[in-house]
Amino acid sequence: MPGKRARRHFSQFIELERGLIIGMKTTGWSTRRVAGQLDRSECAIRNCWEQWAREGTHARKTGSGVTRKTTRREDRRIVRQALVDPTVTRSTIRADVGVAIVPQTVSRHLAEANLKSKRPFRALPLTPEHR
């Protein structure tokens, strides 16, 4: 469709945009006019304004993700154990930390620290006879 403007779908408002929406709507701008000015959908503008009218705030709500099982101190301990002994297994680290976590949690913490897994050799690459 040649005359259609590209919309920014599925992106969050920044704090400034939320403030602009509230200010424009307070001064009497229509939802359509605000949406055109900020290049956002009318539905998103309406939802932001309704939240302001309902709760008196335009701040985003905190995420509803799963709470972390480990503290930052335990996260550092996981990474330190992997750095001290690169051949240590996830299960060993999990047992040493003392928190009920699954091995995938250990792997995720190590990946966040940019540590990659190191597999031991199946056999040494050269024996004395090869040399």
Automatic annotation (TrEMBL):
Signal peptide: none annotated. Its main location: nucleus. GO terms for molecular function: DNA binding. One of its GO terms (biological process) is DNA transposition. Residues 75-131 form the Transposase Tc1-like domain. One of its GO terms (cellular component) is nucleus. Pfam families: HTH_Tnp_Tc3_2. It is found in: Nucleus. InterPro entries: Homeodomain-like_sf (IPR009057), Transposase_Tc1-like (IPR002492). This is HTH_Tnp_Tc3_2 domain-containing protein.
